[in-house]
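Propose amino acids for all 386 sites.
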């Protein structure tokens, strides 16, 4: 007799992880793969962070911490909002999490019940919808276009019908790198407040922008959940540490959930992360390197046949409309890996409805790697046309 198994495990895969595995297998067979699939900085953690980790290993017990995070780190994160955005956020509203992924799970559990409706734009980071599906929360898709900058608007929300229970906002976005304008953010927060919609703002790519600095949602929406991480700008992806700014009345529910689900975020990562706020010179140099990669791709991808590109305001992605080249982005990316030795992520990971016409290129690697990838793509497309 078959044993009981929950349907929660039947969520869609995180396709970029499958692409990473395929790229590793291709490399193991003797090919030099250039990686444009993974949303991970090509740099190590800042040197001050690494030094702090060594010191902590030598001197600290590395045991459990307060479920909400060590007080010094929570205060440092509050200081980051003051220094970067000019926003006063109480350390009492800061929750240190096991990466942004842990933050999203806590926020979804604390805010929504099975059957509630949460809206998110397409394209979007796939783990949002997969987490929500696993929690039996109904997803309201908001198909956005490049004219909308692939971002939600009040008009798009109203066209979707009855107001949802929640809205996920990502600015800069993954996969498109687009940002919501300050006026657009103010309009969305006002609308959510008026309609009783819980706003959850993913700000994981703050710090990695190429023009205007994004507005911190915490500045004008004390009832919103703000999720951030040390993974992207702070280049600490594998350390699995992030944070949330939570409404004051949600602090205790989040604390209780954290105590039972995680006990606490890894102490070593917390102690190391304290040093990240003293490493901005190194981190800004990383962003300058991303900017060089971005400039190169915006110039050379059109020469390779990828000439329909979303405006990459931030993050380290370019989202390309490849409908003139293929109607099957997954098969297209498989051929790209097999024939050009370049790994990229098909748009179906981010948009199950229209993603067959899109590909996401990450430019988080070294400048040499990105330049060589652009050359290979140009040669590949030239060979396919001949």
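Proposal:
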């Amino acid at each position: 007799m078959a044993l009981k198994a929950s349907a929660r495990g039947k969520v869609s895969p995180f396709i970029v992880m499958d692409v990473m595995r395929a790229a590793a297998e291709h490399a193991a067979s003797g090919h030099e793969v250039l990686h444009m699939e993974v949303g991970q900085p090509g740099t190590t953690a800042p040197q001050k962070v690494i030094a702090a980790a060594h010191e902590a290993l030598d001197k600290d017990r590395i045991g459990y911490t307060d479920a909400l995070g060590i007080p010094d780190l929570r205060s440092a994160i509050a200081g980051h909002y003051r220094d970067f955005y000019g926003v006063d956020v109480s350390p009492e509203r800061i929750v240190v999490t096991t990466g942004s992924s842990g933050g999203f799970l806590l926020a979804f559990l604390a805010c929504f019940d099975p059957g509630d409706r949460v809206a998110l734009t397409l394209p979007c980071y796939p783990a949002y919808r997969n987490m929500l599906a696993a929690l039996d929360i109904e997803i309201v898709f908001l198909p956005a276009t490049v004219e909308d900058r692939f971002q939600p608007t009040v008009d798009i929300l109203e066209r979707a019908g009855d107001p949802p229970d929640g809205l996920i906002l990502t600015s800069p976005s993954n996969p498109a790198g687009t940002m919501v304008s300050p006026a657009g953010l103010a309009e969305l927060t006002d609308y959510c407040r008026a309609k009783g919609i819980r706003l959850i703002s993913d700000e994981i790519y703050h710090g990695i922008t190429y023009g205007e600095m994004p507005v911190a949602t915490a500045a004008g929406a004390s009832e919103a959940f703000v999720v951030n991480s040390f993974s992207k700008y702070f280049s600490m992806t594998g350390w699995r540490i992030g944070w949330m700014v939570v409404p004051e009345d949600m602090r205790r529910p989040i604390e209780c959930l954290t105590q039972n689900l995680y006990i606490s975020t890894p102490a070593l990562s917390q102690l190391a992360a304290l040093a990240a706020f003293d490493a901005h010179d190194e981190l800004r140099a990383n962003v300058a390197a991303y900017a060089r990669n971005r400039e190169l791709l915006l110039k050379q991808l059109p020469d390779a046949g990828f000439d329909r590109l979303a405006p990459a305001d931030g993050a380290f992605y370019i989202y390309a409309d490849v409908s003139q080249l293929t109607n099957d982005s997954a098969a297209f990316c498989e051929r790209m890996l097999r024939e050009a030795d370049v790994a990229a992520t098909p748009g179906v990971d981010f948009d199950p409805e229209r993603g067959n016409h899109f590909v996401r290129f990450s430019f988080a690697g070294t400048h040499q790697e990105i330049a060589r990838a652009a050359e290979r793509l140009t040669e590949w497309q030239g060979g396919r046309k001949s």
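The chain has a mean pLDDT of 95. The two ends are 58 Å apart (CA to CA).
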